[in-house]
C-alpha cells in the first residue's frame, strides 16, 4: 500500500478516536488490521467498480478504506443510525474523500441507484441483505460480503455464482448473477 493510503488511514484513526470518546462507535484499538481486512478483496475482485453501495456502513468499514484506493469509484454509504451517519459525513469531509456520499437512512427507504458492487460487513443474514437491496442491483452487480464462520451456510440456497475467499477468521463472499 502507498504511503498516501496509510497517511489517510492514520487521519481516519484520529477522527474515529475523537468520535469514539463521545459516541462509542467501535471498540477497535488498532485500525491497521481493520484497514487491511477491508481492502483485501481488491486482490481477487477482478474488476474496478464504477458505483459501489455499502449497506449498514457503521464506522466506515470496509467502504472508507476501499474508497481511499478505488478513487475512481463513486461510493454510496447507507447508515440509518444518526450518530454513525454523522460520523461518516464528518470523516468524509475530514479526509477530503470526494468519491463518497453518505445516505442517512435505511437502504430500503432510499432512492434506488444501480451499483456495480454492493458491500456489507457482518450486517445481517445474506438472504435478508439481498432482499433489502432490491432495486440497487441487477444480474451484472457483484456482492462482496465480509462474513464470519457461517458464510457457507448463508449462501448455499442462493441461485447465483458464489465464491468464498477465506483469510484468517474472515470469509469474503462474492456473489454474481443475482436477479
What's the SSE blueprint?
Blueprint: H1 3-23, H2 31-39, H3 42-45, E1 51-55, H4 63-69, E2 74-78, H5 82-95, E3 100-103, E4 117-121, H6 126-132, E5 142-147, H7 151-155, E6 161-167, E7 170-176
Helix pairs in contact: 1-5
What do these coordinates show?
The protein is of the alpha/beta class and 179 residues long. 37% of the residues lie in helices and 22% in strands. It has 7 helices and 7 strands. It has a 7-stranded mixed beta sheet with strand order 3-2-1-4-5-7-6. The radius of gyration is 15 Å and the shape is globular. The model has no long low-confidence stretch (mean pLDDT 95).
Rounded to the nearest angstrom, the distance between the terminal CA atoms is: 35 Å
Give the helix level as a range of percent: 25-40%
Mean pLDDT: 95
Figure out the total of helices.
7
Shape: globular
Q: Quick one: how many beta strands?
A: 7
Indicate the radius of gyration in whole angstroms: 15 Å
Major sheet: 7 strands, mixed
The arrangement of helices and strands along the chain is: HHHEHEHEEHEHEE
Strand-residue proportion: 15-25%
Oligomer: single chain
Strand arrangement within the widest β-sheet reads 3-2-1-4-5-7-6
Low-confidence stretches: none
Q: Report the structural category.
A: alpha/beta
Short description:
With 179 residues, the protein is an alpha/beta fold. Helices cover 37% and strands 22% of the residues.
Question: What labels describe this entry?
Answer:
single chain; about 180 residues; alpha/beta; 7 helices; about 35% helix
Amino acid at each position: 500500500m502507498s504511503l498516501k493510503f496509510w497517511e489517510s488511514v492514520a487521519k481516519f484513526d484520529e477522527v474515529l478516536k475523537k468520535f469514539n470518546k463521545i459516541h462509542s462507535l467501535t471498540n477497535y484499538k488498532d485500525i491497521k488490521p481493520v484497514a487491511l481486512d477491508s481492502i483485501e478483496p481488491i486482490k481477487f475482485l477482478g474488476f474496478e467498480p464504477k458505483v459501489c453501495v455499502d449497506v449498514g456502513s457503521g464506522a466506515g468499514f470496509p467502504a472508507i478504506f476501499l474508497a481511499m484506493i478505488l478513487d475512481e469509484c463513486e461510493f454510496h454509504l447507507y447508515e440509518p443510525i444518526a450518530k454513525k451517519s454523522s460520523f461518516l459525513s464528518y470523516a468524509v469531509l475530514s479526509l477530503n474523500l470526494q468519491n463518497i456520499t453518505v445516505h442517512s437512512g435505511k437502504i430500503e427507504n432510499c432512492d434506488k441507484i444501480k451499483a456495480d458492487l454492493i458491500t456489507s460487513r457482518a450486517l445481517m443474514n445474506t438472504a435478508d441483505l439481498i432482499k433489502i437491496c432490491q432495486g440497487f442491483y441487477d444480474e451484472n452487480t457483484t456482492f462482496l460480503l465480509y462474513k464470519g464462520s457461517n458464510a457457507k451456510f448463508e449462501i448455499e440456497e442462493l441461485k447465483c455464482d458464489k465464491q468464498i475467499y477465506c483469510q484468517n477468521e474472515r470469509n469474503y463472499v462474492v456473489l454474481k448473477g443475482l436477479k
